[in-house]
Specification:
alpha/beta, about 35% helix, ten-stranded mixed sheet, about 375 residues, 12 helices, TIM Barrel, two-stranded antiparallel ribbon, binds S-adenosyl-L-homocysteine, DNA polymerase, domain 1
């Protein structure tokens, strides 16, 4: 008898196991029925997950032991294994590097501000958008995350917040931003399902408010239109980084497909649908996109629109020639935008000493290069 080819023993890269968080209400009921459990267990499990942030059946002590065993492997396979967590900003910023079932690495960041706690999460392992200033963009795309791999980052963050793990009393996760690794709109079906779980009240989801969830995109125009039609009403952020196509073609390569004008028109369509303003993200890169005339051009483009500008001091990636704009240049950029009536904020630089929120932790490979854990 011949032995099976080795390939059957290889880990099935790219196929995360099914998890409760992948399923909607009907799917959950079907899954518990398959396991021979009564239908009401479906909502019981979901309440553990979405309201107590519990992902280990062994700790769901109101379930009979037989049911705990049955659901363990079938609905709660381990999705995210913590490689390490790093703290900064006096414990109010916590960045976690996760290893997925197939060895792929992703990261998420949890930040406590006065009045809100925000999780910054990843939608893909790696990213295919190739923006030259972004650490994740340099490594290319490994794979899309599953719905549950996205949702479980939020669960893990909510658990840390609830346990008082941000250097203070227990708190409630209030905001989620898709500004970790990946292009969320390039993983559309999984993203949309994850958004439904984030928004739905228990037992179907975490019950987060729609406007406190931000989806950040390079500007995939058809997907913006699709998201607008989905009635999810989450906040949209567009990574513009340049007001002119000539420069944006180089900073956000997908601009060669959808131009500045088309991207803004799609965002306008989104704003018209939700009635709320969108954000324009603009990384301030010294001598590249921070000239006064570009501020004027950006201001002219945005003045008639329902848009807000979020300037991000560039977080230089290892080996890059690029640096953040000087504060004086940044102030002048803000002044010119405000002179045109455009609202502007400058993002704070949380977690600089732990490699920011731009894929640098995963890019560093995890273990060897990181400073010791401080949790
Ligand atoms: N793919 C999505 C999410 C990416 S991360 C998007 O492009 O919008 C969220 C934001 O961080 C984006 O605006 C991205 O352009 C920006 N960013 C990436 N690398 C950065 C860096 N090194 N410094 C500052 N901002 C960066």
């Amino acid at each position: 008898m011949t032995s099976l080819p080795l390939v059957f023993d290889a880990p099935r890269r790219g196929r995360p196991p099914r998890h409760l968080a992948d399923l909607d209400a009907d799917g959950r009921r079907a899954a518990v029925a398959e396991l021979g459990l009564p239908g009401y267990r479906a909502d019981q499990l979901a309440r553990h997950y979405f309201t107590r942030f519990e992902h280990e059946p062994a700790r769901m002590t109101d379930l009979p032991a037989t049911a705990r065993d049955a659901v363990g492997g079938a609905l709660f396979p381990p999705l995210l294994t913590e490689v390490r967590s790093l703290e900064a900003d006096a414990g109010t910023t916590r960045k976690t590097l996760w290893r997925l079932h197939d060895g792929a690495l992703v990261e998420s960041v949890l930040m406590k501000y006065p009045g809100r706690i925000t999780a910054c999460i990843s939608s893909q392992a790696g990213c295919g958008m190739a923006c030259p200033f972004c650490a994740t963009g340099q490594g290319g795309l490994t794979r899309n995350l599953s719905t549950a791999e996205i949702v479980d980052q939020v669960r893990a963050a909510a658990r840390v917040a609830a346990d008082g793990g941000l250097g203070s009393e227990p708190g409630r996760l209030s905001n989620v931003v898709f500004m970790g690794m990946g292009e969320p709109l390039a993983n559309y079906p999984r993203l949309a399902a994850a958004l439904h779980r984030l928004i739905a009240p228990a037992p179907d989801g975490f019950g987060l408010s729609r406007r406190s969830i931000t989806v950040s995109t390079v500007g995939l125009v058809p997907a913006i239109a699709k998201l607008a039609a989905e009635d999810l009403d989450v906040t949209l952020a567009v990574s513009l980084h340049a007001p002119d196509d000539e420069l944006r073609d180089t900073l956000v390569p997908v601009n060669t497909r959808w131009k500045v004008g088309e991207v803004l028109a799609a965002a306008d369509g989104y704003a018209a649908r939700t009635g709320r303003r969108y954000s324009i993200e603009y990384a301030m890169i010294r001598g590249v996109n921070d000239q006064g005339w570009r501020a004027d051009l950006l201001g002219d483009l945005l003045a008639p629109r329902l848009a807000h500008v979020n300037l991000i001091p560039l977080n230089p990636t290892p080996g890059s020639q690029w640096d953040a704009s000087p504060k004086k240049v940044e102030r002048e950029f803000v002044r010119r935008l405000e002179a045109r009536g455009v609202s502007v904020t400058v993002r704070d630089t949380r977690g600089r000493d732990i490699d920011g929120a731009c894929g640098q932790l995963a890019a560093a490979g995890g273990d060897e290069l990181m400073p010791p854990l401080r949790v």
